[in-house]
């Protein structure tokens, strides 16, 4: 596709040329576990990576391949690898770089499932993780060590919608000799292209805005092709030394940055061994969703900003955590990194007694009580008793929220209906 082609064109076209014997106009669901190699020679060459080709659906299927190419293109990357969930995408992205005895520095403002992965399961694996306040650049600097293999953070955090200074953290990661991986789930490539600010690898829970329908789990890792693993070969031996699984090939020599040695290793070792495959059907569903990403986000961020203003002016609301509002502490960062809008997942604190929080949420008619984000439908959740219920009071306070905090994910409904719903519930708790 020409360099100048726009986002909307790419999101419906990249990765698929109708050319199969059946001539289908949209990418079909290739529901097959395995592939007929046709000859001894083809089978041998595909297994040894000498020839490109479908091998076995645990590590990829043709519908998934279209999805991967499209995401890589939208993010400006060299290649992508899709997995069965966002959770497995985060795990695979990091396990490809760090093993037992090595170390990761991560923001402490992360999705709870990622915190569990990093602090509990990775500890079981012998991978140490230091969590830092993502806005404290000295803390990032101080946490790096010779065994560090990656920096990790979310571009927009949840539930307080913190905005990462991607450029500053990327610079510190590079000074420490490691790549910056960002989870860009809430921003998506439409609101933010992390490559433009120095990030090296992106990960997504495609379950959220990329799909947009709330019907299918999926995850994606995109190698942005910026990190030079060959610059310090002794640090990245998985890419720079002979790889016994594939005829002692040196992945960095064979694939380098341009053909993503990083993702070849991720696929042939981590995904192959752990098996977090994306199904052909879910690949298809996620592709269908992706085709309307920009249109959905434009409506969602517009409605989110209007709702944030409405809540900000309501006497039953103490504080609105939305970086699109001028007095928000990440407003400047949002203007720099998110000129198209500051996302549509944010939270606010009620200015009422704790005992009225449940009534507020139960009174909502349109906002569904669902522990998900990025759906076409508007969703509400009470983080302190659900998604973040394992955090104590101090941890909640450190993370910038508490019992009266309510999280919203704004969907595609009419803005007026959403505002009416929130107004009626706020009135219900103030009228007593
Ligand atoms: C920012 C972020 N990253 C990763 C995940 C995990 O994604 P999944 O639920 O698709 O496994 C989530 C899920 O809520 C998330 O919000």
Automatic annotation (TrEMBL):
GO biological process: cysteine biosynthetic process from serine; L-homocysteine biosynthetic process; transsulfuration
Superkingdom classification of source: Bacteria
Residues modified as N6-(pyridoxal phosphate)lysine: 208
InterPro entries reported for this sequence: Cys/Met-Metab_PyrdxlP-dep_enz, Cys_met_metab_PP, OAc-hSer/O-AcSer_sulfhydrylase, PyrdxlP-dep_Trfase, PyrdxlP-dep_Trfase_major, PyrdxlP-dep_Trfase_small
GO (cellular component) term, any one: cytoplasm
Database matches in PROSITE patterns: CYS_MET_METAB_PP (PS00868)
Pfam families named among the record's database cross-references: Cys_Met_Meta_PP
Cofactor(s) annotated in UniProt: pyridoxal 5'-phosphate
Any one GO MF annotation of this record: pyridoxal phosphate binding
Keywords: Amino-acid biosynthesis, Methionine biosynthesis, Pyridoxal phosphate, Transferase
EC numbers, comma separated: 2.5.1.-, 2.5.1.49
Family, as annotated: Belongs to the trans-sulfuration enzymes family.
Protein name: O-acetylhomoserine aminocarboxypropyltransferase
Organism: Rhodococcus wratislaviensis (Tsukamurella wratislaviensis)
